[in-house]
Amino acid sequence: MRMGGLVALALGAIATGALAAPPPLVTPSGRLQGTAHEGVVAYLGIPYAQAPVGELRWRAPQALGHWSGVRAAQAFGSDCMQPRRPGGADARPMSEDCLYLNVWTAAHSAAARLPVMVWVHGGAFMLGASSQPLYEGSALARRGVVLVTLNYRLGRFGFFAHPALTRESPQGPLGNYGLLDQMAALRWVQRNIRAFGGDPHNVTLFGQSAGGASVADLMVSPLARGLYQKAIIESGIFRQPLPSLAEAERAGATAAASWGAADADAQALRALPAATVLGAGPPLAARAGPMLDGKVLPEEVASAFDAGHVAHVPLIIGSNNDEALFFPDQAHGLAQRYAAQWPAISSAFDGYGTHQTAAIESELATDMLITAPTWHVARAAARHGLPTYLYYYSYVRPAQRGHAPGASHIDEVYAVFDRFSGADGADTQPIVEALQSRWVRFATTGRPGTHDAPWPPLGAGAVRLLEFTDAGPRVRADFAQERLQLAERIAAAH
């Protein structure tokens, strides 16, 4: 059977909602056997690069050749190496062989040319995986996009520099292997997504937390130009400077010494057991993440946006109103730390209407950590001509009302993927509709608003944004500039 006919059969099976496996799908990389359910076909655990093991550890991802036969794509690939709690609910298989992605599509034919959305998961560049139930892509696929989620190397497997590795490959790129993985997945999308009914010329890259930071990093990286046409950054702009390559090399040398490999060359480092590299400490004890290597990341995100040295693509960017609820250590004790400024702080901040010290601390920490940096980057993007749409998410899940004053870090992801739990009930459907419709409209057209559901872009005048509230979305132009400016001054002084 010709490729086009086989593709049409496979994708046509979606419309039936059949539980049986559809016919194999022919892609440029090889044939895939997916699973159809309620109008969507899922293809899980698709390799997008060679396994980064042995001699390929701490190297840029290598292209994967065409496979023969039909590859089963009905289960997620292994999660990337990361700390795990013994006996915890997250004890899925993990391996260095983890460069897999997943595709959900409701296209009726390979000629559908649907917009493509590529999701990058969060987890502080140390944790997480595309296999997490929160990122199940059927709901977005039913709205008319092809949804892709992916794994990328984490921790010291994905972000590691060492003098021996630099001597081996002085021209690089060095260190940011997890970001290079994300680019390799985007290149796979460019080559293969037509077979799933997607449009490789209409790709939206989106992510939350470290995934949102990844989107910002790829907007800065000259190596990622042309791999996507739109970007969504959810709670991904942080006030944390990146280490230089030299600083990362010193940290890598210290880590290697702790592994008993103080004088090891590159070959000996690659021969170390994965468990040794992973270590056995708390999840974030051996924190690792992106660095300024000069090629993948030539400069800091904020300075790159200030100078306009970023991909000029339409951008949705925003954050949640109580991010620090997820990071309580960032908030606890701020009243004592900033005792001299506390009268001004308690005047500008109301603690989500409670006027309680702990809530004011959380509100201040949220603004210092994420809100103010996000607004800085958003305004810079608009100033350089990027169509920029700013949001603020203050919707509190029904089950959390009365217990949490605002929306915590990651809360909007439940709406984006329609993954609220039963405890939240049907009351969540309006917020799901509000976010999903706008995210999909943006992926389709580059504009998330309509005449009936406005969302004005940032301009040169007053800041305008869309706030997602318990009562529904509303356009605001009266956001507390005094509060954010105070948070920026305090953060800059400390």
Q: Give me the oligomer status.
A: single chain
User: Number of DSSP strands?
Assistant: 14
Largest sheet: 11 strands, mixed
Radius of gyration: 23 Å
Any low-confidence stretches, pLDDT <50, length ≥5?
1-18
Q: Residue share in helices?
A: 25-40%
Mean pLDDT: 92
* Basic shape: globular
- Helix run count: 17
Counting helices, strands and paired strands, the structural category is alpha/beta
Distance linking N and C termini: 67 Å
Strand order of the largest sheet: 3-4-6-8-7-9-10-11-12-13-14
Strand fraction: 15-25%
Core attributes:
alpha/beta; eleven-stranded mixed β-sheet; 17 helices; 16% strand; disordered N terminus
Description:
This protein is of the alpha/beta class. The chain is 33% helix and 16% strand. It contains 17 helices and 14 strands. It has helices at residues 3-12, 138-142, 155-158, 163-168, 177-192, 210-220, 245-258, 266-270, 274-278, 301-307, 328-331, 334-337, 342-348, 357-383, 411-416, 429-445, 481-493, and strands at residues 25-27, 30-33, 35-37, 40-47, 70-72, 100-105, 114-120, 146-150, 198-208, 230-234, 315-320, 388-393, 465-469, 472-476. It has an eleven-stranded mixed sheet with strand order 3-4-6-8-7-9-10-11-12-13-14, sandwiched between helices. The chain has a three-stranded mixed sheet with strand order 1-2-5. Helix 10 (301-307) crosses helix 14. The longest helix is centred in the C-terminal third of the chain and has 27 residues, at 357-383. It starts with a helix and ends with a helix.
